[in-house]
Amino acid sequence: MPLLTKSRFKLALSCPTKLFYNDNRDYENQKTEDKFLEALAQGGYQVGELAKCYYPGGHDITERGYDIPLDRTNELLKLENVTIYEAAIRHNDCFIRVDILEKKGNSIILIEVKAKSFSGNGTDEFLDNKGFIKGSWNDYLQDVAYQKYVTQKAFPHWNVTAYLMLADKSRTASVNGLNQKFLLKKDEKGNVGVEMVGDTSIEALGNPILSTVNVNEIATRIINDDIYPEKPEIPYEEKIEQWAQSCSNAKKIVSPIGAHCFGCEFQGNHSSKKSGFNECWKHWHNLTDTQLQQPMVSQIWNFRQKGTLVEEGVFFMNDVLQEHIGDVKPKADGTLSNAERQWLQVEKVQNLDDDFYLDVDGMRQLMTSFTYPLHFIDFETSTAAIPFYAGQSPYETIAFQFSHHIMLEDGTIEHKDEYIKLERGEFPNFEFLRELKKALETDNGTIFRFAAHENTVLNQIDWQLQKADYKEVPDKDELIEFINSITHNKKQKRKGGPRDMVDMCQMVKDYFYDPRTGGSNSIKAVLPAVLSRSEFLQDKYSKPIYGRNSQIRSKNFDDGWVWIEHDAEGEVKDPYKLLPKLFKDIDPEEVEKFITDEDLNSGGAALTAFAKMQFTEMTETERKEVIQGLLKYCELDTLAMVMIYEYWMHTIGLK
User: Fold this and answer.
1) 0.85 exceeded by pTM
2) Torsion sign (Cα): 534, 538, 539, 541
């Protein structure tokens, strides 16, 4: 019988109806169930193990399920003083596992460990100026309040105090290789664990980089419904009882729909699965499956009023009026405003208009101002909750890879430079920056990025260089000067340098809209859209002109590589789907032991691959394959920028 666990409680916070869909395999569920990938992405398992090291000597309850963990916990709680990791506590149909529980006499301290970053400002960081919970902290505080509630109900004669333990960005590690002491592993059943390597005593761990914050008062206010602008319709205890019964009895709680539903994971078009999303909208508004296939207001780009429209009964883009969007006029410089762009998207849906929009004059004026040779760069980065090196704080940026394409004025294109650093536990940022500087300082050509990421990363490295811990960097001043020359920093009110990178995503927003992007401005949406339209690009890149010694020189693709292929319906295939799969020439029996997926064609996959190299045991064969996959993926990112740029040049008559 399913109980209201912490994970189900968190699900119910977003929508109680999800409790029914979550435990029913008949319903589509778009959320991944790969706990290993989740652990890599969030760092929670490693932070959890580090937290235990700060409370040594505890009893670790590793058994799964309900009964055995409960029996073990209850036995241990008979002791006068005890520390328990993953203590199991049940009250009626509510069940929790406490990360760290300390019992001293009749007092219990609950510590919920989270990999979330924290600025070190105490509980002030969690509340707004009216004393209400900030949205970004709600789930974490609700989680620990639920644990306090269940524990207090289970042991009413004991005093229960709730804490959060968080990755504190105001603290710095005092030892090297801290993150390499906690490696992830997966057993034959797919369960995720952490293998601690080397000395993990408190002395060996150095200065604590996790902070424990007393949130008992906030948790109490949550339980007492005393932390909201208005009292909830259902009291806390009654709400918990309702949610628990929904789990144990498989009874659906019918919740009102709203803008929050648009992100629901229980939707999709799987032929053998039901859509919970559709069921809810049908229940409340008698809509049909056919109607629910229409573009909804949620798809309007960067639109903040979708909640208001839903309340007014406007669900579909076909029903949106111009007055709903607002004042539809261009920005002062004549480029597309947000409202203009939103209304353009809506109009094209309503008019079944598949034509693209391009401000030819504006785009031409901008593009003729650029200086050749043109440089296109893309970074792959990661952040880790547990720092790599002494002097680092949690979640400092790690820049482990870049790609660089160049375009000359005569149209020559080349994959000019690249960098990758994946050695376990090594901090690559300054070497990364030196190599980037070497690649870009040979001329004064315009540098392009796609979106803000590269500018943000370089500003982060600038901050790292200026920290006192990095005074030993001999070329620090030259590196900082280079960063300042190609970036801007709004927080520091530093204007762009003489070669401040041009954001191609902003060029899209200002001058270009294609309905085939579905409202998205990401490179993964824009590239397929322009390729599907451009006979010029299709003709050029369907020929074997790309490769190590081909017309367009590549560092990673064999001669004669073709980027344009068509599917059975004659549509252009997404080039990212053409990236070669990993491990194709390796013994299948060996591949079965690998932990990396054969497809490496997205930023998420690249980040996951980097994390696996850092935090898991990987064979040299797999490692080499993954490196080649990362190099090809990142190279395509900058080639994609080149292709989009070529499309604009050809369309406005510059080529």
Assistant:
1) yes
2) positive
